[in-house]
Design a protein that fits this description.
Non-ribosomal Peptide Synthetase Peptidyl Carrier Protein, Chain A, 98 residues, mainly alpha
């Protein structure tokens, strides 16, 4: 089963969110997902520019909108997301809030 089809499963736990963020970021940056960890900084460690972050947001919104109706990452919250951990915590909290 391809990774893209996992949206039909139940709610994501925090590890599932981490895997999703890692997979999406690796795909966008064309790097090995195993090189991305929670402490990775988008800019310093992954050399991700603002366009890469926007692509990540769009990919996450598309993946997660099927699990959580109307799932959105607010533009003003983007500046607070500096690391993979920040993104995972943010997404997981939004999913938990429903």
């Amino acid at each position: 089963m391809p990774a893209e089809t996992h949206t039909s499963q139940g709610p994501l736990d925090r590890d599932g969110v981490l895997d999703l963020v890692r997979e999406q970021m690796a795909d966008i940056l064309e790097i090995d997902p195993s090189t991305i960890n929670e402490g990775s900084s988008f800019q310093e460690d992954l050399d991700a520019d603002s366009l890469a972050l926007i692509e990540l947001v769009e990919a996450l919104e598309e993946e997660l909108s099927e699990r959580s109706v109307g799932f959105r990452i607010d533009d003003e919250d983007l500046e607070d997301l500096k690391t993979i951990r920040d993104a995972v915590d943010y997404v997981y909290a939004k999913l938990e809030a429903g």
